[in-house]
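Async update (no meeting this week)

Hi team, since we skipped the sync, here's where things stand on the single-chain job. The sequence we agreed to prioritize is pasted below, unchanged from the tracker. I ran it this morning and attached the output directly underneath so nobody has to dig for it. Comments welcome in thread, and please keep replies under the output.
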Amino acid sequence: MTPARRRPTRPETRSKVLAAAQRVFAERGIDAASVDEVAAAAGLTKGAVYSSFRSKNELVLALMEEYVADRLQESVDALDARHDAGEGLLAVGARLVAAMRTDPTWQRLLIAYAVRADRDPELRAALRDRRRRLRAALASAIDRVARHHALELPFGPDEAAMVVLALSNGFAVEDALDPGAVPPDLFGRVLAALATRPDPPG
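Output:
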């Protein structure tokens, strides 16, 4: 007797949908791609996709959140690997500018969705909630890194997170409008300038 196939768990289904959506959106473009195509690429039914994501917008927002979370973890890992915090911040800034240029889709998509959200209260609420989670995660990472490297910040972790995200989005806009205008090391130099070590007691 053939054993019954195990149904994927909800987290497994969600992961399959996200992986398939990333492939389909890369091949077809986000606007042109459909939920049906994502479902087919994932080997799932359309209903299975909607069991994890209520709409295509929610799926796109989840992908954006996952992308930013991955970049955040890479940045924290890069800082942890450096003994000198200043050098680490320069490296992180350069890495973020390089990622912005190599794959500009996600930050440009954030800008496009922010414009859409101005006319769509439901989308605005969903985007707001995800940005709040991102700021909280970034603030926690900033606090941990500052403590680990004994850095002094000119303001608290929550405000520092807001500054870092504003810089990232602003640099993305400037570089999209004027490619190459943002020096590769500028982001890192700004980050290093914001974090200082306290002077040793005299």
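Quick observations from my side:
Residues 1-53 form a domain with the Arc Repressor Mutant, subunit A fold (CATH 1.10.10.60).
The chain has a mean pLDDT of 87.
Reply here if anything looks off.
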